[in-house]
Each structure stands twice: as structure tokens, then as C-alpha cells.
Amino acid sequence: MSNANPSTSDQIRSLQPIIYTALILALVGVFVAFLALDKANESGGTVVQAAAAPAPAGGAAVGGAITLADFSFSGDMEFTGTDFGIELNNVGQTVHNLEIVGEAQSDNVNPGESAVLDVTGIDPGTYEIRCTIPGHAEQGMVGEITVS
Ligand SMILES: [Cu+2]
Known about the structure:
Blueprint (H helix, E strand, L loop, with lengths): L7 H45 L9 E8 L2 E4 L2 E2 L4 E7 L8 E2 L3 E2 L8 E6 L5 E6 L11 E6 L1
């Protein structure tokens, strides 16, 4: 009559295949979850890169380029919009910069180097430009730009 009243160990023995199967399924599930997390991280990284890509553009698009020489400005003198960058290329033998009088001031640009002056929130109009290095404006580093 042992069948009518199986021992506890018999019950466990009969459950063993089910327990093993459950354990294996649980392990597979964890493994699949890790794979899914990996995938999520990878695609997350891609998304971050995609989001970061426009960041270097940061400032507004360059609207034109002005050449800084000893001692003159030349190049694009007409700009559009309220926000734009002006590429400054110093082809002279000495340091120069560009100030849009009352609006914006570039960093000094060393001979042979370039920089971008970011202009933001400027109104349409005509603006004086000059180099603020002492003596340069007097020697000819003055001009005008128009913004429309
Ligand atoms: Cu100068």
C-alpha cells in the first residue's frame, strides 16, 4: 500500500524533473534578460551619440568668413539672421581680432590661425567692425558689416 501513501522522498523524486526544468528555464530567462540589457545599452549608446552629434555645432551656423590681414578686413560683409558665426582667418604676421562695435568681440586670433566669432541676438542693421589691438584700427582695420 505504499502507492496509496507515498513517502515524502518519493514525492520529491517525482517532482525532480519539473524542478530541474524550472531551474533551466529560469537560467535561460536570466541569460536572455542580460542579452536584452546589453542590446538596450548598445542602442542607448548609439542614441546618446546621435544626440551628441549636433552638440559640437553648438553655436549657430557660420554665416560667412572675414580675412584679417595687416592691416585690413576683407571677405563676407553681409550676414543674415539674428544668430550666426563669423569665421575669422588671420593671414597676417601679427595677432588680430574682430569687434562688432557694441555687439560682439572675438578672441585674439594668432597669425595663421582661425577662429569663429559667435554672434547672437543681433538686430538687422549696419555695424562698425574694428580690430581692438592698439593701433590696428588706425592703420586700417575698420569696416562695416550689414545684417539683414
Ligand atoms: Cu589687428
